[in-house]
Amino acid sequence: MLRAALLAGAERGINRVLRLDPTALPRLARLSGRIIEIDCTTPAWRLFILADDEGLRLASNWGADADCRLRAPASSLLRLAVSRNKTAVLHGPEVEIDGDSGLLMNLAEVLQDLELDWEYEISRWLGPVGAQLLGSSLRSPVDWVRDSADSLRQDLADYLSEESRMLVGQAEAQARFDELDDMKLALDRLEARIERLALNLNPDRPE
Amino acid sequence: MTDPRKAHDAEPTTHFGYKNVPESQKAQKVAEVFHSVAAKYDLMNDLMSGGVHRLWKRFTIELSGARHGNRVLDIAGGTGDLARQFSRIVGPTGEVVLADINASMLKVGRDKLLDKGVAGNVRFVQADAEKLPFPDNHFDVVTIAFGLRNVTHKEDAIASMLRVLKPGGRLLVLEFSKPTNQLFSKAYDAYSFSLLPMMGKLITNDAESYRYLAESIRMHPDQETLKGMMETAGFERVSYHNMTGGIVALHRGIKP
Prior knowledge:
The structure holds two protein chains of two kinds.
Chain A: H1 2-18, H2 24-29, E1 35-40, E2 45-52, E3 55-59, E4 68-72, H3 74-82, H4 86-90, E5 96-99, H5 101-112, H6 118-163, H7 170-201
Parallel strand pairs in A: 1-4
Antiparallel strand pairs in A: 1-2, 2-3, 4-5
Chain B: E1 13-16, E2 19-22, H1 23-37, H2 41-49, H3 52-64, E3 71-75, H4 81-90, E4 95-100, H5 103-115, E5 122-126, E6 139-145, H6 154-164, E7 165-176, H7 182-204, H8 207-219, H9 223-233, E8 236-243, E9 248-254
Parallel strand pairs in B: 3-4, 3-6, 4-5, 6-7
Antiparallel strand pairs in B: 1-2, 7-9, 8-9
């Protein structure tokens, strides 16, 4: 019963946020009638998600089969929630997907693309002038925090790959992959040439 | 135990709370109770249960397994709490029928749903649970939340629900039951026989109706008995979940 209460609270909060983005609910409506099951292996818990034009419904049980089932440990689920590149996480060895994976991707896209119209929500309480004043004074610090976070991430990536050499940089990795491709091509050519030579030396041998 | 329906040559009696009344009068008396409380029904539910009735209903919906396009019958649907959620789940291709024997409750439910913009896939039908006016094998899900207790012939109602369900369809009975813990049961008794009628008096100016509520809960079959009744009627894979220490139980059975 406690879990149901927590889920009900979470559902209410999420739906309130979803209503702030004018495009989110129409996009969720396209997923209506479909059931997504998130099956966390460690720790063991299950969550069912149903979307419709009023938002999301979260449930710990559902008496019917899911259209898409995602099975993964909590660490992978967390990475999936925060990562921009969800496909890479979904292809990880500990993640299992049954059913229509497009459904899961669609839901993830809607949640990732949320553009909340805070100003509209504030204007309902403070009026248009107050909202504008508050919005503009909030916008610059928010932008600063976002820019700083972006630049920190970039600096960290640069440091790990270029300075400390703990990770291989993307450009460097791509160069190695290209070399490997070239080598594979050269090997294929060599193999074909040897085969042709062998055929010339021994023309009677059937192919 | 003798069956009160066959005990007398005169008209058989049934219980109405702790009193015995002729069978023909029970429906009328129950109707009076609900006519009296209909307007403040939602407020009283929230007050009496501390809002927990919403979680009980939520769990009922989860276990129903209703899907897009399903046909759902909500018997004794009262003020439409379940019907509203089902309407969202079954979508425009499905159908929800909100049935209640009591015209006042049905009217409050219909107004509430329309006010909330729920329309299109919901029908309102005044019907007796014992004689459901629907074809055989018609619904995917039938629910009755806090309604079976008030039905005069529970066996007939369960049989009627079985009839209108499609094979594989699910019946969910959400109803007050017997608390599993003795100590908790004592506290619950004290609450429901003193505090409940007092709240009823304050809010709806009708202590009697809420005294009936407390009494009718005690007269209702306990978890195992109701499970047995559903199995006898022909339901399969009958199971029940106790909630809030057994104050409420959710029974589920599948039509074979």
